[in-house]
Structures are given as structure tokens and as C-alpha cells.
Design brief:
The chain crosses the membrane at residues 75-93, 99-125, 146-167. The protein has helices spanning 3-24, 30-45, 61-71, 80-92, 97-114, 146-166. By secondary structure, it is mainly alpha-helical. It contains six helices and no strands. It is globular, with a radius of gyration of 16 Å. The chain has one domain. Helix 1 packs antiparallel against helix 2 (30-45) and helix 4 (80-92) runs antiparallel to helix 5. The longest helix has 22 residues, at 3-24. The protein is 60% helix and 0% strand. Bound molecules: zinc ion (ZN).
Amino acid sequence: MLGKTHIAFSLSLSSLSALAYNHFYAPLDSILLWQFYIGVSFGAILPDIDEPNSLLGKKTFFISHILKILTGHRGLTHSFFFVSLFFALTFLIPNFETLMIGITLGIFLHLLGDMMTPSGVPILLPFSQKNFYILPLFMRFKTGGIVDKSIALLSIIAFILINKLILI
Ligand SMILES: [Zn+2]
């Protein structure tokens, strides 16, 4: 999945949780909503920091090269361990809970997106190197292909429509 698709896909799914929160719990403050979406967008591209050619990797040249050498692409940054690390940080960094929850959710949704591609995700690292998928083999799609780009487009439309409902 392309970096832009990861952002769009994660934003559309996370906006559903914002809609549910707004509907069932309490009206959402627009500042908190923005913090949440900024967090989700960052989290959605963060795991690919282990790939120097990714959206984030291109901006962190040195770090992404070291990470790729140490863990390989789709290594530890593509595991439940990495998701748990950021979830734990949510409780350790005061006043930024909404941003941190957004980042954690973005990372999780990135892994979900990668689990729809032929390579899958070694979600149980460092305990197991087995790759996991959420789609059967014939439905998995290549990064940058027509399905990838269609998901990005549909996600952007869904994100706009869902946010119209939130801001009513
Ligand atoms: Zn990835």
C-alpha cells in the first residue's frame, strides 16, 4: 500500500470511531478532532520508516537506512510490539493523549492495510517471523496498483462524508 493510501485508508476508518464517539459519548471538540486526525496520519506512515523509499523514509534518510539494515522492511515496526509501545506511551506523555491515541490507531491501521498485500505482516515479531494476512490470496493486491489507488480514492470520499456527519 502506498503511503498516501495508508493515510487515506486510516483516516476513513478512524473517522468512524470519531463518529461513534461523537454520537454515543460526547460531542467532539474540533481541536481534539484535528489532533486525532494528525496523529492518525502520522501513525499511518510511521511503520514504513524502515523503508528509505517510503513517504516518511525519504525524509529520515539516515534513520530509515539504519532501521532497514537492523530489522529489514516490514520488521519490528510492523508488529503488535510496535503498536503496544505507542499505546503505552499514551499514558506516559501527559496532555497529548488524543494525539497519541491517533498515532497508535494509525499504526494499527497501517498494519491492517499491509495485511491486504501479498507480502503480509510479521505481526508477532520478535516472537515469530510468520507473515499474517486478512485477505485470501486471490484478493491481495500490489502496492501502487489500481486497487491500491481505488482504495485511496474511496477512502477520501468516505472520510469527507463521515466528517460531514460528525460536524452536523
Ligand atoms: Zn508498511
